[in-house]
Structure formats: structure tokens, C-alpha cells
Amino acid sequence: MANFTPISALLGGILIGLAALLLLWLQGRIAGISGILAGLISGATGDRLWRLEFVLGLLLGGACGFGLLSLPTPELADVSVPLLLCSGFLVGFGAKLGNGCTSGHGICGIGRLSRRSIVATLSFMLAGMLTVYVLRHVWA
Amino acid sequence: MRWISLLSGMLFGLGLTLSGMVLPSKVQNFLDVSGNWDPSLALVMGGALLVFMPGYFWMVKPRSRAVNGGEFHVSSRSTLDLRLLLGSILFGVGWGLVGICPGPAITALVTGQWQILLFVVAMLVGIKLACWVTARGSGSSLA
User: Fold this and answer.
1) Cβ–Cβ contact B54 with A under 8 A
2) Are A98 and A127 in contact (CB under 8 A)?
3) Could you count the other beta carbons within 10 Å of the beta carbon of residue A52?
4) CA-CA distance, B100 to B20, in Å (whole number)?
5) In chain B, what residues touch A63 (CB-CB under 8 Å)?
6) How many CB pairs under 8 A join A and B?
């Protein structure tokens, strides 16, 4: 097993779960990032402020983690521009088409035992695993 | 109660950073079950569900409205359809290709890397196009 980091993974996960629970309990909103972004770029104007604040919060959280706690940053120097564009497009298009991503389906949906979210999460996990398999063990 | 979404976003972003979800290689190592597998990210989901699931069933579900008095914007749909399956598969392929999903993409913008910015722009184009496609199609609303 490569670089297994159980403590930071579990603690980070607990923070994510707490964040999602607070948003739903106090404000009635699902912390699904792709849904929040979709509403921000094409939803009703009156429904945008809380979304904007959440996105700002994500950036502040990242600034705390990377800046104050000096947590490791993503390394993308080896990733080509076409791959970045293709990946980003599929992530956005697929998440919106499937009504959710890792956060909305994977945490909030599974946490509510939603049948749709369980099927969605199994589907994208499996598709992600197959993609990495092809990239690393077939293509390479 | 307006600052709640800011606070929630901050906790969420910090959690993504601390957990390693923002690291593309770590995500790919998690998805690489037949290789040198790193199971860490299963614990991210596990930790999140450990808090969210009991919280949902004890604090949210018994209520008819959120604490701020607003309604719960939660999907009640349970039917499986092709759109859900196809969208999730496309999302999974994109996620596996580089190892970034929407939350980490936004959070990692603060690192100032042009690669992240490019990814986010492509992701927003994808979301926008899917909004347009779904609006023209069945007209079913966002979860």
C-alpha cells in the first residue's frame, strides 16, 4: 500500500461531514460542489449568494490548509494541457448530467441512503478505477 | 445565519486539504486498486459519513424545516435512469484521468497553479453545457 495516511484522511473526512451536516441542518442546503457551482453559473440570481459564500469558504479553507498548516499542494507539472481540459470537461459535464459528484452523491446522498446516490457513487468509482487501470497498466 | 455557508465551505475546504483529496496522485493511487493501492480516501468518505449519516437521521430528518426556517432543498427522487448512470460514468472517467473532482479543484485554486485554473474553466464549461442539454431535455430539476 502506497503512502497510507489513515489519521489525516479520517480527520479530514470528519471535517467534510461536519461541514455538510451544518449546511443542511442550519440552512437546508446540500453541500454538493457541482450542484453549488451549477446554480452559481446558471441558476436564479436570488439563489446565488449562499453559493458564492460557500465557494469563498472553500478557497479560505484551502488557504488555511496550504498556507497556515503547510499541507501538501497538488502536483500537476506532468499533466498535459489536453488531458487537463478533457478531464475538467468530463468532470463538469458528467457531474451535472448525473446530478452530483463525490460530495453530493458520495457523502450527502449516501448519508441519506438515497438509492440514486448509491448507484451513482458505485458507477463513478468503478469508472474511475477502470480509467486509472487503463492509464497506468494498459496504456503505460 | 448568513455566514453558515461561508463557515461550511471553509470546513469543507480545510477537510479536503487535510485529507489529501486535493492531491491528484493520491486520488489516482486510491483508484488504482490493482496497483500500489492507497486506501486512505476510503477513510475520507468513511469519516464524512460517520458524522453526516447519524446527523442526518437524528437532526435533519425529524425536522420539517431547516434551523433557519427555510425548506430542505433535498431531492426525493428514487428512480434510476440512464441520465444518472451516464453522467456518473462520464464523471468517473474524468475524475480518474487526472484525479481531481469539483471540490478539490475549487479549493486548490488558491495554490495559484495555472493547471488548476485551466481544469476549473473546462469544468465550468462542462457544467454549463450539461445545464443547457438537460434544460432542453426532460426538464427535470437539479438534485
Assistant:
1) no
2) no
3) 14
4) 11
5) 110
6) 514
> pLDDT digits over B26-44, tens only?
999 999 999 989 999 999 9
* H or E stretch covering B53: helix B40-55
The confidence band for B138, taking pLDDT boundaries of 50, 70 and 90, is: low
pLDDT-derived band at A95, boundaries 50, 70, 90: very high
pLDDT at B143 over 50: no
List pLDDT tens digits, range B107-129: 999 999 999 999 999 999 999 99
Close Cβ partners of A33 (under 8 Å, ≥ 6 residues apart) = A58, A101, A102, A103, A104, B101, B102, B103, B106
B138: left (phi over 0), alpha (psi -120 to 50) or beta: alpha
d(CA B25, CA B46): 20
Contact between chains at B18 and A105 (C-beta distance less than 8 A) = no
Gyration radius from chain A CA atoms: 17
Q: List, in sequence order, every beta strand (DSSP E) within chain B.
A: none
Query: A85: burial class by Cβ within 10 Å (0-12, 13-18, 19+)?
Result: middle
CA A7 from chain center: how many Å? 20
Q: In this predicted structure, which of A84-88, B12-16, B73-77 has the lowest mean pLDDT? A: B73-77
Three-class SS state of B142: coil
Residue A134: Cβ-neighbour burial (10 angstroms; 0-12, 13-18, 19+): middle
Coil, strand or helix at A33 = helix
**B35 has a chain A CB within 8 A of its CB:** yes
Interface test with B, best of A68, A102, A123 (most B CBs within 10 A): A102
